[in-house]
Fold this sequence. Notes:
6-stranded parallel β-sheet, alpha/beta
Amino acid sequence: MSIKVGIAGVRGLSSAMGLNSIPDVKVEALCDLNEELLKEQAAKYNIPKTYRVFEDMLETDIDAVVIATPMQCHVPQALLALEAGKHVLSEVTAGVTMDELWWLIEWVEKYKKVYMMAENYCYIPENQVIENMVDKGLFGEVYFGEGEYIHDIKNLITYNYGMQHSGKTSWRRFWQLGKRGAFYPTHSLGPVMKWFKGDYIKSVSCFGTGWYTAPELRQDDTTITICQLESGKMIKLRIDCISNRPHNMNYYSLQGTKGCYEAARGLGDVPKIWISGMEEKRGEVKWRPLTDFYDEYMPERYKNATEEQKAAGHWGADYFIVKDFIDSIKTGTKPPIDVYDACEWTAVGLLSELSVMNGGKTIDMPNFRKSSGNRDKIIKI
């Protein structure tokens, strides 16, 4: 089964290397509004067809699209693609309004095509090792997790490429740093949710610091978001894209009844775990590097990855995520991050905006997996 893929947005080329390393898959088309950059990148990656209009690309014989445009374009383009009979791999977040999320679910259910959200932080090797260890019960029953995305992006509020674009205000000024709450939650949330298998988010509460570093921007310097799960367990998120400080975009921790995990904090720190019973001396409680457990708990496909696959980006994650997307198309099976996951994880950010503007008020998460009508889609304050 040969699969032709079109990519919307040249920033989506991080997936091109991964796609082209899969047998019977070909990146056939590239679409972007910036014609100069479009032609340059198409030549670099040997992509034969280019388009400036997304709908024109959809009229070709491609089987699937990767949507890597600005986040406010994700749902409108996904709806067009699904209606055109194309499978969809969408960058994060899934959408920018609650209504969009319901539209997306409706169209995925109607057209029965594969929709997957490309939350590649779920595929970071360390996060895969922890997921495997959780599945094998090494941490006991897990009940608390946290994720942090600390990434100063103030320099991205203007475009910094091409003479005709340089200095102009970018979409991030409005759709990211122009919003309150945890506007970009999925990198922090997705991997942790994978560790709480079979659980879903029941409610969201968000608190912001206010504005100190760049008060001209609407986004708080830091937000803390608490997700209460259906089971009563808890996830804490910190999002900070404003503060002047070094990046730390993939910090996670996990606490269970038999052990715990903490990712690296920086300055020589390493990912580390403690598991009850692994002490060399009775009563000794000490961290051990997570690397000590790689041989036993790293998924086999990561161990056997080729250099080409590893080079796809994000520590190899960009290959494995597109591989899972393509496998779902070929086998007709549920993708690892389906439309319901995508909408719930995205909704954390949208509900956090309501929460933080109402003093941290707890907002209930709608049930995206089971709604019988419009009354089930109401958000109550």
